[in-house]
Amino acid sequence: MRKLYRTLAGKLALIQTTFLVVALASIAFTLWVSWQLEGGAGAINEAGRMRMLTYKLTLMHQAGEHIEVAQGVASFDAMVLSLRRGDPSRPLFIPDNQTSLDRFKEVERAWLPLRGKLLEPTEGPALRSQADQFVNTVDAFVSAIENAIATRTALLGGLCFGLVVLVAAASVVFVSGTFVWIIQPLQRLRDGLKQMAARDFSLRIDESNTVEEFSSLALGFNAMADALEGSYRGLEHKVAEKTADLARQNERLAALYDVALMAVQSQPSTQDLAQEFAAKICRISGADAAAVRLAAEDGERLLMLGHHRLPASMVEAEACVRRGDCACGEHLETVAGARIIPIRALGQRKLKHCEAAGYQTVVAIPMRTPNRTVGEVELFFYGERTISEEERHLLDALAGQVATQLDNLRLASRMREMAVSEERNLMAQELHDSIAQSLAFLKIQVQLLRRGIKEGHSQEVEASLAEIDAGVKESYADVRELLLHFRTRPDQEDIAHALRSTLSKFELQSGLSTQLTMAGQGVPLPPDQQVQVLHVLQEALSNVRKHAGASSVELRVTQSPQWRFEVRDDGAGFDALAGRFDETHVGLHIMRERAQRIGATLQVSSQAGQGTQISLTLPPQGRSSAPDISLVADVAPDPGLAARSV
Q1: What angle do CA 315, 318, 319 make, to 5 degrees?
Q2: Which of 176, 329, 409, 434 has the smallest set of CB atoms within 10 Å of its CB?
Q3: Are residues 166 and 18 in the same domain?
């Protein structure tokens, strides 16, 4: 039980229970006193009726109203009986003090002789005198009741005042207990937390609290303060270490980002890239000088591609270093990661140029891509130098980054070279299939012309001159057509403008009418695909001019669900199944090669006397398809329908 009273819940329960019991008792006593007062007030009222009825009966007796007197006496008897027994429902009862009870007995005794005289004929003056005496007895009874009520009213007032005092005392006890048992311990805990927030862990809270809960909290707070004080002693050192580590990590990321942006921002040459990287890695590593060497194709030489702060004599002497002449590049293919080369410890195989320049340590970092070894980066230090594991990883990452950029520049250069070579091959094919054949024909006609002049055959001379004139005109037309094709450039957003320009130039050159029809809405073609599409269409129009004998040409373009280009003419056409494709339509080989470049499908549909249709269908955007070329012979042409595809 004593332990229960030490708890906060026990103390509050004790205070509240005591206050509740006292309050309930006071309220019950107050209700009882109030009830007693109401009963006394009812008795006073009843006594007042008795006085009035006494005078009334006296007057009625003097008037000779004996029947009414008898009824009044019976009513008076009922009043006396009611006072004797009491009536809780009204309420009506005589106060239980002795004086009031004695006075009521006197009233009962005085009523009996008066009752007898009221029921018998009696002289008026004697009855009136006796009635006055009885009323005085009733007044004494009323005074006794009033005195009892006054006493109990004073008691009720004192009780109400006591309740007020009790409420005030209970409030004071509750407030003071709350302050002592709850607020003060909480304030001490709050002050302790503030000191902890200010990194002061020296405060300890008194654990001998009269409230068990706060005593447990103080014990836990002190244990927490001890633990925090012990942990905080080494926390600042750990934070400093982590901050320095984050700074190093940020420096590494910044260095990698800086190196990664070299080839993106300015798109330099390999020499410029190597020169810039040498300066950056020299600054990042804190080296005294740096060199970037490129491995030659034969794998036996290292070429100086870039350098920073190297002596001019050393740059000139080591512009090309053979592997094995010094420690540089010695283990380029076998050793992974950066390696440290102490110059003085090399003995006879030491780096003579490095020693002459005053360097004592060289850090060699291979530049590798997943596919090949690009070269080596060398960092030169005047003093002895070691590198940590983090520095090794950073140097390897930087060297790998620049190796990838150098290799990308090399691959981009080769791709440009291959693109130029392929375009030259196509130009050579076009020249061969047009101007070269015409020149060969002209050469034959010149030989025939010479023979005709020598033999004096005027008809053969005229015929040869006519053929030579036609051949020269044809060659001139071919040259102009090639120049027009080479000058036509696609729009990066919309190919329609380039198509209209091509058809307009074709009309001026051939005199044929053209029509362009475009349907659907599709994603714009990339510029590289637009170039190949234009060349295919230009070659198709060239074949129409040379071989079709048509009067009009129609170009239909469908953009969805995939791009499709159709060139239709109303010329003579040809029999695709007769095997004359290679003989009369050699330009289709060029169209096929260009279609293969963009993964498109080239289809040729023709029949003798029914014109020719050439269709170029591109794969859906984002998907490639196998290139194909098909020749279709229309056995039963169906005018009004679109060209068939195989």
Answers
A1: 75
A2: 176
A3: yes
